[in-house]
Amino acid sequence: MRVVPSICTFCGVGCGIGLRVEGARVVGVEPQPGHPVSQGQLCSKGWSTSFAIDTAGRLTRPLIREAAGLRPASWDEALQRVAGAFREALAEGGPGAVGVISCARATNEDNYAAQKFARAVLGSNNVDHCARICHSPSVAGLTLTLGSGAMTGSIADIDSADLILLIGADASENHAMIGARILRAQARGARLVVVDPRRTRLARLAEQHIQLKLGSNIALLNGLLQIIFANGWENRAFLDARCENVEVLRQHVAGLTPELTSAQTGVPVAELERLAYTVSHAKAAFIAYGMGITQFQSGTNNVVAVSNLALVCGQVGRPGAGINPLRGQNNVQGACDMGCLPNVYPGYQPADSSEVQAKFAQAWGVPMPQAPGLTSLGMTTAALAGDFKALMIMGEEPVLTDPDQHHVEHALRALDFLVVVELTMTETAKLADVVLPAASFAEKDGTFTNCERRVQRIRRAVNPPGEAWTDWQILGALAARMGYLGMIWADAEAIFDEMAALTPLFSAMSYPALDAHHGLHWPCDAAHPQGSPRLHAQSFPRGRGRLLPVSQVDPDECPDADYPFFFTTQRLHFHYGGGSMTRKSPLLERETPAGLLFIHPQDAADLHLHDGQGVRLRSRRGSLETCAQITDDMPPGTLSMPYHFREAPCNILTNSAQDPQSKMPELKACAVAIEPLPPGVAPRSADELNKEAGYGSF
Amino acid sequence: MVPSESRHFDLTCCELDSVERLRAHLAGGRTLYEVREDGQGGRHWQALTADDPTPFVAQTEPPPFAAKAFFFAEREAVFRFDGERFVAIEPTAPAQVLFGLHACDLAAVAYQDQFFAADAHYQARRAAALLVGLDCRHSCSQGFCTLVDSGPEVRAGTADLILLPTEAGWLLLIASVAGAAAVADLALPAASRDWPAQRVAHRQQVASEQGDGQWLQDGIAAINAAKVSAATWESLGLRCLVCSGCTTVCPTCSCFAPLERKLPDGSIEQERVWDSCLYEGFQKEASGHNPSALAGQRVQRFWQHKFGEGFRQTFGRYGCVGCGRCDHVCPGGIGVHAVMRKVGKPCSN
């Protein structure tokens, strides 16, 4: 038995784990007792890591599509096929017709390689990843108001906060070790307030639960500002010294009376006043939010509204205080940091700046693309229009996790060529022309960056199964096939060093420095060689914090006579993303049915629906069947489903209406109709329903 | 190897000039494991070579993992089905030494010896292992071994050899036939000191550090008198995130689940893997009925197994050995201390 220190891959918290290796395989994990983030604890997903990376069921050889289906091939043949397809697509459609969807689960090194491949080899800014569908509005919104889109503080700030305000974040389930830390803070006397349409575990344990109407975040946050300004509770000293646009915001919210806000949000006036008082009088408020803020067509404005509240109360830049987006994937922060976004290079260096282009052109030895890049939804839309030909997807499962699933599937089928780099045969990989087997995090060296900007080392514990390679090796070999030799690296550390040399935010980071400190927070440069756990103590990157008036935007689709229920999505403590890793655990897989719908007891009674009974759900985009679970977690009139299950993929139902600024689809709210299946009739899986409807299996 | 007759083995005591010399001797011909720091804040059982030069450090806190995984493997193949036949997979059982096990963890091994008495996989590995215990002189931070009769001095019949630290240096207690055989070549001189008095002094010291344990007695009494309200258990259940950490690190937890793995050659391999009774699915029946449908019921069931009188009578001791590991790993803050304090409070019921 050997124990190899690494970082958990199951969310953006970045817990320290030890991989317990017996012979040639990981048989279990243990928490790193001294780890500054997880403090010797893990969630059920973390404890189940050995199943997630089990080599049974893993892809071990490249696969190539022939008329009869996918067949094994050599790396040589597979890479040749991929290189040829990209060359053809480039010849036909130019750099705008090709792109890469990178992976928020892969390492910084893999992501750096992915955007370098897109820009230096394909000559295209068409590179994106799933941050689009979790926290792109955080980056857009906080960049507008502060000048930087990441968590302003660190997880340890929870320990010194006297108020923890969670908005649209189910932390004990999705970021469990942050949830645990919040519970410890509460036990030492901090106050917990949860704003969520659902009665989550932490909402039940909180001093105050603001159960607002789905999609009324801006109305609520503006209403709180009105109460704060009306009572003179704003932090005048902070506003004078650090912010701009105060009067404009004050006037914007002046008419939003508590009564009006109460009518828009469904929250009683007394509760609004209590929260306004609490947040404006807290010594240090740790304000954290999740996808209950971002996944709306008003996502960016929702983030701005959170930022407004924090700034007006002066809750930024001090120990315990801060605006803290809780990020979903283990390295979604890192994938953004590494420039796997169409508009920025590593370290958020703007892609449209000629200076930045010249810097990377010189470093990488080829001209950099001038044209703006496409987002992932932009790429799929262009594919449907016939303008986009060849796509590489690294380790993401858009067929399950993107909105309006039929759109994604049709778009991927419309491509001339799709190559998927994956651990297992996912629903997306099944559509590919070439599937390349990748190494899991336990099989490679590298770094992940957690949601508090802490860059941490992961270490190779076992060899990849069969012929699987790391993503950066695959990209480097493919680049070489396409005539570019600037991506042949000796090891992951060489990539990190290349990245750090080109990225001011990371300039003082190195593997030895990361090893010595349990990771370092960026910015980490000559001025901050020990990293920056807390940002904005003296000023904001854009100078003064900007208060921006924003107005309530209702969800694009609200309940009506045909689709009378509000519908939202959520996650379960036991699963991660599309379930391709967590569902390999026999224990986690046993824990819930493969797909379920949460419904309030009153709604269930009105529908004569029993617990566990099958239901059919319809939206304007599609329909599915699943089983109902009756719970007062839900408010009456609102239904919710987790998105982990391919048998009941709730994103068949969700709306792809987008936030105009970040292109975030409105995954958190749409309208559905529900009908119970006859008692005793089992729900049919999406696969079965598709066959009946003639869509074919995917 | 601690055969049942060693429970009645008369302890003898030797002077031990060098723990490292003993360790090197035992490591000859066996794989010897000792708890070492990993430089990243972790401590693990690590295999040492016979010539390992690092001085022995008596661990003052129990390591994150007890000895459980050495005998009850966390993942283990038990049989294969090749399409026609079921083939049992025989466990491999290399000779090994666990060096420096605390009394609590040895009490837990003895507890699991009973549970897995008829389990060939467990017993094969157990029979090939030599257990070297270590008496504690002070209480660890969360431990309460003196309140549950598991320490601080290694209990009779739970180890082959026992390291006894004293102000004047190390003593070694020979605690089983296998232990005597393992050190016969070292020709250690018999100790002339009053070692039983030394152990009593350690016990008194640790007992005074651990207090009178009223919190624990009250909790145990409430559980066994079924005086804990369902609402109290539910309030604890709300804090159970169902991470499975407690059952994973608990040295006496022994539940397992089957896992079918399809191998590249098409055959099926059946593993057994550590399970946790805190999962809702653990007791769920095929009909959908679940005797522990509520989170509070599952938390109650877990502690019933640790402190229930019926289990104590079956196993001859409580299922809790007082190591405090559940306190460390529980993200909901409901380890043994918090739970027993809560259920033992009259006002909470």
UniProtKB/TrEMBL annotation, chain A:
The domain of life for this entry's organism is Bacteria
Q: Which InterPro entries match?
A: Asp_de-COase-like_dom_sf (IPR009010), Formate_Dh-H_N (IPR041924), Formate_DH_asu (IPR006478), MoPterin_dinucl-bd_dom (IPR006657), Mopterin_OxRdtase (IPR006656), Mopterin_OxRdtase_4Fe-4S_dom (IPR006963), Mopterin_OxRdtase_prok_CS (IPR006655), Prok_molybdopt-oxidoreductase (IPR050123)
Q: Name one GO molecular function term.
A: 4 iron, 4 sulfur cluster binding
Q: Which UniProt keywords apply?
A: 4Fe-4S, Iron, Iron-sulfur, Metal-binding, Oxidoreductase
Q: State whether keyword Transferase applies.
A: no
- Locate the 4Fe-4S Mo/W bis-MGD-type domain: which residues? 1-57
Listed GO CC annotations = membrane; oxidoreductase complex
Q: Which GO terms describe its biological process?
A: formate metabolic process; respiratory electron transport chain
Can you say what this protein is called? Answer: Formate dehydrogenase major subunit
Q: What is the lineage of its organism?
A: Bacteria, Pseudomonadati, Pseudomonadota, Gammaproteobacteria, Pseudomonadales
From TrEMBL, chain B:
Coiled coil ranges (UniProt) are none
Source species, domain of life: Bacteria
Q: Which residues form the 4Fe-4S ferredoxin-type domain?
A: 229-261, 311-339
Which organism was this protein described from? Pseudomonas linyingensis
Q: Which one of the record's GO molecular function terms can you name? A: iron-sulfur cluster binding
Q: Which InterPro entries match?
A: 4Fe4S_Fe-S-bd, 4Fe4S_Fe_S_CS
Which Pfam families does the record cross-reference, listed alphabetically?
Fer4_22 (PF17179)
Protein name, UniProt field: 4Fe-4S dicluster containing protein
List UniProt keywords, sorted A-Z.
Iron, Iron-sulfur, Metal-binding
Q: Is the keyword Metal-binding assigned to this protein? A: yes
Q: What PANTHER family does the entry give?
A: ANAEROBIC SULFITE REDUCTASE SUBUNIT A
